[in-house]
C-alpha cells in the first residue's frame, strides 16, 4: 500500500505516501461484508474520503496558481493557497477524530476493525499529502497511463529483444508527453515524420526539432495536410478538445 523504498535504500519524503483509494476500498469491503449493520457506517466513511478528495483538488489548484503567479496576483494566490490548506486540515481533522473515537468503541465488528486498523497504520503516509499538494491522493493516473503500453506489449507478444524494448519505451515516452501537452498524438507524429521526410529522411536538429517539442508545439507547426509548417492553414489543428 505505501510507496516505500526498497531495503537498504535511503527513504525520502517521496517514499512515505499511501494512496487514499486503497484505504477507501477497505471501508467499501467492510460495508459489503455486513450491509445491514455496517452499510451506513461505511457510507459515512466514504463521504468523509470524498470530502477529502474535494479539498485536495482545491489545494492542488491553489498550489498550481501560487507556484508562479503574476506579481499583481501573488498576494491573492498566496491567500487562496492558505485557505485551501486550512480546508484540507479541517477535513482531515474530521477523519482523524472519527478514527480515534471509533477504534475505541465496544462491539466493533471485525470488518470495521480491519478498516480502522489499516487507516491507523497508514495514517502518516495518508496525512503526508498535505505538504506535497502536487501529488495525487492515489495512483490512478499513472496506472491508466501504463495500461495501453501493457496491453500493446501483450498483444504483440513482447519486444523479443532489448533493442525493441528500448525503442518501445522511447515511443511511449514521446507519445505520452505529447498527450499530456494536449496534442493529438497521431497528428503530432505524422507532422514530425513528414518533416523528417522533407529533410531528406534525416532526423531534425536545432530549431527545426525544437518546434516539435510537445510543450512548445503550436497547431500551425504541426499541420500535416499541406506542409505549411508555420505559414498557417485552416486544417490540421492538433490540440485535443
Main β sheet profile: none
> Whole-number radius of gyration?
24 Å
Q: What share of the residues does DSSP label as strand, in percent?
A: under 5%
Number of strands: 0
Number of domains: 2
The helix-and-strand class reads: mainly alpha
Q: What is the number of helices?
A: 9
Low-confidence stretches: 1-14, 226-241
Mean pLDDT: 83
Euclidean distance between termini CA atoms: 35 Å
* Helix residue percentage: 55-70%
Description:
- With 241 residues, this protein is mostly helical.
- The protein has two domains: 13-138; 181-241, no CATH class.
- It is 61% helix and 0% strand.
- α1 (20-33) packs antiparallel against α2 (35-67) and α1 packs antiparallel against α4.
- The longest helix is centred in the N-terminal third of the chain and has 33 residues, at 35-67.
- The chain is flat.
- Mean pLDDT is 83; it is low at 1-14 and 226-241.
Task: Please outline the helices and strands.
Blueprint: H1 20-33, H2 35-67, H3 74-102, H4 110-121, H5 123-127, H6 140-155, H7 162-180, H8 185-198, H9 206-210
Main traits of this protein?
about 240 residues, mainly alpha, 2 domains, 9 helices, about 60% helix, flat, disordered C terminus
Amino acid at each position: 500500500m505505501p510507496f516505500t523504498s526498497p531495503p537498504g535504500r535511503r527513504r525520502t519524503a517521496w517514499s512515505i505516501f499511501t494512496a487514499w483509494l486503497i484505504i477507501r476500498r477497505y471501508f467499501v469491503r467492510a460495508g459489503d461484508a455486513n450491509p445491514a449493520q455496517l452499510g451506513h457506517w461505511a457510507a459515512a466513511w466514504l463521504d468523509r474520503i470524498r470530502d477529502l478528495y474535494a479539498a485536495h483538488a482545491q489545494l492542488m489548484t491553489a498550489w498550481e496558481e501560487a507556484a508562479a503567479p503574476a506579481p499583481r496576483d501573488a498576494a491573492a494566490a498566496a491567500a487562496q493557497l492558505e485557505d485551501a490548506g486550512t480546508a484540507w486540515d479541517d477535513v482531515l481533522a474530521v477523519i482523524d477524530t472519527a478514527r480515534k473515537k471509533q477504534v475505541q468503541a465496544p462491539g466493533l465488528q471485525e470488518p470495521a476493525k480491519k478498516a480502522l486498523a489499516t487507516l491507523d497504520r497508514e495514517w502518516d503516509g495518508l496525512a503526508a499529502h498535505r505538504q506535497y499538494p502536487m501529488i495525487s491522493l492515489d495512483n490512478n493516473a499513472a496506472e491508466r497511463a501504463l495500461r495501453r503500453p501493457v496491453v500493446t506489449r501483450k498483444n504483440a507478444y513482447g519486444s523479443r529483444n532489448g533493442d525493441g524494448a528500448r525503442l518501445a519505451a522511447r515511443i511511449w515516452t514521446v507519445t505520452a508527453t505529447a498527450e499530456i501537452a494536449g496534442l493529438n498524438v497521431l497528428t503530432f507524429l505524422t507532422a514530425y515524420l513528414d518533416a523528417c521526410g522533407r529533410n531528406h529522411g534525416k532526423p531534425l536538429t536545432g530549431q527545426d526539432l525544437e518546434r516539435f517539442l510537445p510543450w512548445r508545439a503550436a497547431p500551425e507547426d504541426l499541420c500535416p495536410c499541406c506542409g505549411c509548417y508555420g505559414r498557417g492553414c485552416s486544417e490540421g489543428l492538433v490540440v485535443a478538445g
